[in-house]
Write a structure and sequence with these properties.
Heterodimer of SbcC and SbcD. It comes from Duganella dendranthematis. Belongs to the SbcD family. This protein has eleven helices and 17 strands. With 408 residues, the protein is an alpha/beta fold. Helix 1 runs parallel beside helix 2. The N and C termini lie far apart (75 Å). The relative contact order is 0.11.
């Protein structure tokens, strides 16, 4: 059986107010071709289908159009979707009965029965081969909030949320194990942050404040052939466990992800065991540029911007640009000067990142008492902040302008 693993599409995402419908459509069209070319039996989509809980109608159309065409082009395909932390579980579940009639199974939320017990059976899905026979079982576990997991008595200060997640995976695995026949594999899905996973601070939303959401690889039973994860945008293994993988996002969702290798993963199962994992590179429809490569003084930045000569392209294909400026003092006309240097060039100015080479002053390192803070005047605070940010004394004209602002 051959599986394709993808996640973190974030349909509807905008990059600094530039909508990205064109890029997402290019990816989805490419993925449709990949399903056919790779002769896939299963497509696992591990959460964060949408960028937010209230996706636009255009984003929902993109998803449903993709699902329809995927089944037309590969009628035997098993399509499994789980919700991520960006998704609305209810919104994903709502069209579930209709989608299931067309071969797509969606797990948005953990369901409970009339007694309030978790319906583990709804999380354990059969995967069929081209003959129609069951060849594997999938633990399709969506992003789990604290109220979604079993209540577990813990010892030694263990976190009950993490213990509940581990228990739910154990229950789902036990059910799959009881149903599995000889030659059938068990695979798992999850949308979570595993211990030691590398994240992009610019675009990945923390699931729980304080890091207590990080899960150990041990939540997956050793008999699980493959674990398809979502949430982290950098494609990576979990520790030394080659069979526990994040596929990563299919396109860069922030400038921090410019150098990520975006991909889907092809997984080949040989009966109940994993045979091979192969990354399949996703072509980038629109480039993200950082000029300069490291923050530099404004004069150098303007020179590099003037030298830019990207090829002409329709607006939706023009590169996004982040300009990185190292400031020595405030530059009130910074944006206007950058826009002038880019005038007529086929790029989209998405972000201006400013930084300074300031040194922390000795005053900043002191711990002030409440009495000392009360004695500080607004102009004292202005002087200290200027010193902290730019590494030198505030100019007289700026002190004068600040004093005028403070006049009653």
């Amino acid at each position: 059986m051959r599986l394709l693993h993808t996640s973190d599409w974030h349909l509807g995402q905008s990059l600094h107010n530039f909508e990205r419908h064109y890029e997402h459509q290019r990816f989805l069209d490419w993925l449709l071709d990949a399903i056919v070319a790779e002769q896939a039996d299963v497509l696992l989509i591990a959460g964060d289908i949408y960028d937010n809980a209230n996706p636009s109608s255009a984003s929902q159309k993109q998803l449903y159009r993709f699902l329809r065409i995927a089944k037309e082009r590969a009628p035997h395909l098993n399509l499994i979707i789980i919700a991520g932390n960006h998704d609305s579980p209810g919104r994903l579940d709502a069209p579930g009965p209709l989608l299931e009639a067309h071969g797509t199974r969606v797990i948005g939320a953990v369901q409970r029965n009339a007694d309030g017990e978790i319906d583990v059976e709804s999380l354990v899905l059969p995967l069929t081969g081209r003959s129609g026979a069951v060849e594997a079982w999938c633990l399709a576990v969506p992003f789990l909030r604290p109220g979604d997991v079993p209540r577990v008595a813990t010892e030694d200060g263990a976190d009950p949320y993490l213990a509940g997640i581990a228990t739910l995976y154990q229950q789902a695995f036990a059910l799959a194990q009881s149903r599995r026949q000889d030659g059938q594999a068990i695979v798992a899905m999850g949308h979570c942050h595993m211990v030691d996973g590398q994240m992009s601070n610019d675009s990945e939303r923390r699931i729980v404040i304080g890091g207590t959401e990080m899960l150990p690889a041990g939540i997956f039973d050793p008999a699980i052939a493959y674990a398809a994860l979502g949430h982290l945008h950098l494609a990576q293994n979990v520790g030394k466990q080659a069979h526990i993988r994040y596929s990563g996002s299919p396109l860069p969702l922030s400038f921090a992800e410019v150098n990520y290798a975006h991909q889907i993963l092809r997984i080949d199962l040989d009966g109940p065991v994993l045979r091979e994992i192969v990354p399949v590179a996703v072509p980038r429809a629109v480039e993200l540029m950082r000029v300069p490569s490291k923050p530099a003084p404004l004069t150098q930045v303007l020179e590099e911007l003037a030298a830019l000569s990207p090829p002409d392209a329709p607006v939706e294909q023009q590169p996004y640009l982040e300009v990185r400026v190292l400031l020595e003092q405030p530059e009130p006309g910074l944006r206007a000067r950058i826009e002038a240097a880019l005038d007529g060039k086929p790029v989209r100015l998405a972000k201006i990142e400013t930084s300074t080479a300031a040194r922390a002053s000795s005053i900043d390192k002191e711990v002030m008492t409440l009495d000392q803070l009360e004695k500080l005047k607004p102009d004292d605070i202005f002087r200290q902040l200027y010193q902290q940010r730019f590494g030198n004394e505030a100019p007289a004209d700026q002190l004068s302008a600040f004093a005028e602002l403070m006049l009653p």
